[in-house]
């Protein structure tokens, strides 16, 4: 199988998984206060549990504790810097959802959270693509399986990004 096929599958894994999560949010009204709170927390919990229970132990096994810790720290620092650069309060900002309108600081916090999650997802899509490419280089069926798992993993990410936006 050629590089073009692996590239297409990798792109589709990101688009379809994240898009499915965003589409779920559009189809189902999650913008009510308690529902919004639950969905953000559940999406965050899923991403944290995948990171701590799967990705970090795998990074330690493949490399070392030092490299895994450095990678984890680098990810935190990058998101912290991005969070500092994003605007946080705009009193004139208005966000309209299916079940309400958010004004001022609340709207700015939701928008900032959505943008920060989106930027974090965009940054982490690079290693996802590398993982799919490496798996395809090893064996086509493994590459497709990794792409499918990444697409499923991207659904809560799409939800976590779409809900605050």
Task: Present the secondary structure layout.
Blueprint: H1 3-27, H2 33-62, H3 65-85, E1 94-97, E2 100-103, H4 104-138, H5 140-162
Antiparallel strand pairs: 1-2
Helix pairs in contact: 1-4, 1-5, 2-3, 2-5, 3-4, 4-5
Written account of the structure:
By secondary structure, the protein is mostly helical. The protein has one domain (about 5-160). It is about 80% helix and about 5% strand. It has five helices and two strands. Strands 1-2 form a two-stranded antiparallel sheet. A hairpin with a 2-residue loop joins β1 and β2. The longest helix has about 35 residues, at about 105-140. The radius of gyration is 17 Å and the shape is globular. The N and C termini lie far apart (about 40 Å).
Q: Give, in order, the helices and strands.
A: HHHEEHH
- State the total count of DSSP E strands: 2
Oligomeric state as shown:
single chain
Described by the principal axes of the CA atoms, the overall outline is globular
Describe what is shown at a glance:
The chain has 165 residues and is mainly α.
Task: Tag the structure with descriptive keywords.
2 strands, 5% strand, mainly alpha, 165 residues, two-stranded antiparallel sheet, 5 helices
């Amino acid at each position: 199988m050629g590089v073009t096929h692996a590239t297409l599958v990798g792109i589709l894994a990101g688009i379809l998984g994240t898009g499915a999560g965003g589409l779920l949010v559009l189809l189902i009204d999650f913008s009510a206060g308690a529902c919004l709170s639950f969905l953000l927390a559940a999406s965050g919990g899923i991403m944290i549990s995948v990171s701590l229970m799967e990705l970090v132990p795998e990074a330690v096994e493949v490399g070392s504790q030092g490299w895994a810790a450095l990678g984890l720290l680098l990810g935190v620092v990058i998101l912290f810097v991005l969070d500092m650069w994003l605007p946080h309060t705009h009193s004139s900002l208005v966000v309209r959802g299916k079940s309400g309108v958010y004004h001022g600081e609340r709207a700015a916090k939701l928008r900032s959270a959505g943008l920060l999650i989106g930027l974090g997802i965009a940054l982490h899509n690079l290693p996802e693509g590398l993982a799919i490419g490496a798996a395809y280089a090893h064996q086509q069926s493994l590459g497709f399986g990794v792409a499918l798992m990444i697409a499923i993993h991207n659904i809560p990410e799409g939800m976590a990004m779409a809900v605050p936006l």
